[in-house]
Every structure is written in structure tokens, then in C-alpha cells.
Design goal:
alpha/beta, Oxidized Rhodanese, domain 1, 25% strand
Length: 99
């Protein structure tokens, strides 16, 4: 599975960032520009994913997003796991939305 650091991801201006945390987690804190598709809804909502873009998967710390990245890679998507997740994004001082 491919991975990327939050610093590397922040340098990609039009990256498709998919946050796989549950809706309540996403509402509390999220990377600016991330789109919410919770892991629990991923199979039924996979049709919403752009098939021709690299997808950058993020969760709280990188564990759930790694599982989703593996799933997507197995279904012919280009998926990359974001190391450290949203917490690493926030801790790096990158832009977040809260509340």
C-alpha cells in the first residue's frame, strides 16, 4: 500500500482527500478540503469516488484509512493512505475545520 505524509499531501493543491471516519468525528475536526465517506458506508457509496484520480484516504490516525486504501487498491482504484491521519494533519499546523 502506498502512503503519504501530511506535509507531502498538503503540497498537492487538488488532491482528492477522503475522510473515512464517522460523521460525528468528521464534524468535530477535519482537514480543509476533505470529503466525508465513512468507512461504514464505503461499499455502498463507492460510486461517488472519482475513478480517474488518486484518492488520499485519511482517518484519525491512519489505521482505518489503511484498511480502506487496501480495499480500494483491490478494486482498481489508486489509493494512498495518509500517515498519522487527521491528528498528524492538525499537529503539523495544517488548515483544519472544527465544529
Amino acid at each position: 500500500m502506498d502512503t503519504i505524509t501530511v506535509s507531502e499531501l498538503a503540497k498537492l493543491p487538488d488532491a482528492a482527500i477522503i475522510d473515512v471516519r464517522e460523521a460525528d468525528e468528521f464534524r468535530q475536526l477535519r482537514a480543509v478540503g476533505a470529503v466525508s465517506i465513512p468507512m461504514s458506508q464505503f461499499v455502498e457509496r463507492s460510486g461517488e469516488l472519482p475513478a480517474d484520480e488518486t484518492l488520499y484516504l485519511i482517518c484519525a490516525s491512519g489505521v482505518r484509512s489503511a484498511s480502506v486504501a487496501d480495499y480500494l487498491t483491490g478494486h482498481d482504484y489508486r489509493a494512498v493512505n495518509v500517515e498519522g491521519g487527521t491528528f498528524a494533519w492538525r499537529d503539523a499546523g495544517l488548515p483544519v475545520t472544527e465544529g
